[in-house]
Every structure is written in structure tokens, then in C-alpha cells.
Amino acid sequence: MASLLQEILFEIQCQAPAPSKDFHHLVITKNEVTLRSWKISARAEHRKVLPREVKKTHTEFLEETIMHKPLEKIFGKDTIEYVLNLCRGQFDFIVRIPDSLKIRILSFLNTQDIKQLSETCKVFQKLCSSEEFWEKMRPRNEITAGSVNRKSSSVSMKTKQLSQKAQGPVWMRRRRNTIF
User: Fold this and answer.
1) Lowest-pLDDT range of 61-75, 147-161, 166-180
2) Residue 56 gets which letter from DSSP?
3) Distance from C-alpha of 167 to C-alpha of 165, rounded to nearest angstrom
């Protein structure tokens, strides 16, 4: 699993909340936390101020709780919790695995679960709406339809045909499910 980790684990930049116009850039690597801050001001005396950079190891960052409050104010509570978890060694491996493996795992989910998963983050939204993913799903849907045909004694053909007409062709259903 450690091979899935890249050098930069997390990176975010944003402008500080009003009235400040300062720009902040936070980078979490395997070994350290780096915060870069640029003071942005219309006043002439602040124009020559150089950017500030603070580097801390993960353990130093976890121990120095004074630094957490300003970061929470700048980046938000969820972001600081995520950063603290990364510093504790609690990584989100599911997002970091290769797309081909994610597609393989997702191909075992039903369409309702795929829809819910695609709403969790941009990575899964992009993956669940990709053509490559739906090409993998097509054979599975055909196999499931074939197994339903063999069990036609429990499901009448008329009911199945009506439900297929109501839902439309497979490609239209796929498009309806993936547009958000």
C-alpha cells in the first residue's frame, strides 16, 4: 500500500477570509507540512514583504496546536481534519489506487450504489461517468439480463418488456444515471 503514496499527499491553496487578501499554500508530503503565505496589500510598505514559509515534520505539526486554529480559519475545519489524519498516517488509499483497479472494483456495484459513489467526490464522479467504466459495465449487464431470461418462469416476459420500454435503451439509461 505504501507504493500508492506519491511524494505530495495533499496540496491546497486559497485566499484568506475577508478582510485579508493574503494568499496561502499548504503542501503535505510524506515527511513534512509546508505552509507558504504571501501578504497581499495595497499599501506601499507591504509591497516589499517577501513570502513566508513554515516547514514542520508531521510530529511537530501534530504537537503544535497553535498552528491549527489559523489554518482552520483559512482552509476550513474539514481540510484541517484531513491534514491531521494524513499527519497521523491515516491515508485514503481508495482514491490513490490506479483507475483501472477502481473500475474493476466499481464494476461489482449495482447502478444505485454507483450513483451514490459518484456523488462523494470529483474523482469518483469523473470515473463513474467515463466511457471506459461503462464499457466494463456493459458485459455485466448483459450477463445479468441473460440470467433473468433463463429464470423467465419467475418473471413474465410481458413485465420485462414493459419495464425495458419505460426505461428506454441501455445507452439512454446509462446517460441518465451519469449526468449530475
Assistant:
1) 147-161
2) E
3) 5
Helix (H/G/I), strand (E/B), else coil: 38: strand
Return the H-helix or E-strand segment holding 109. none
Closest CA to 177 of 125, 115, 134, 118: 115
What is the β-pairing status of strands 52-57 and 23-29?
A: unpaired
- What is the β-pairing status of strands 8-15 and 52-57? unpaired
For residue 3, the 8-state DSSP code is G
Q: Which fold has domain 98-150+161-178?
A: Monooxygenase (1.20.1280)
Which pLDDT tens digit goes with each residue over 64-108? 999 899 899 999 999 999 899 989 988 777 777 888 888 888 888
Phi, then psi, of 23 in degrees rounded to 5: -110, 135
Question: Read out DSSP for 65-90?
Answer: GGGHHHHHHHH-HHHHHHHHHHHHT-
pTM here is 0.59
Write down the domain spans for the chain.
Answer: 2-94, 98-150+161-178
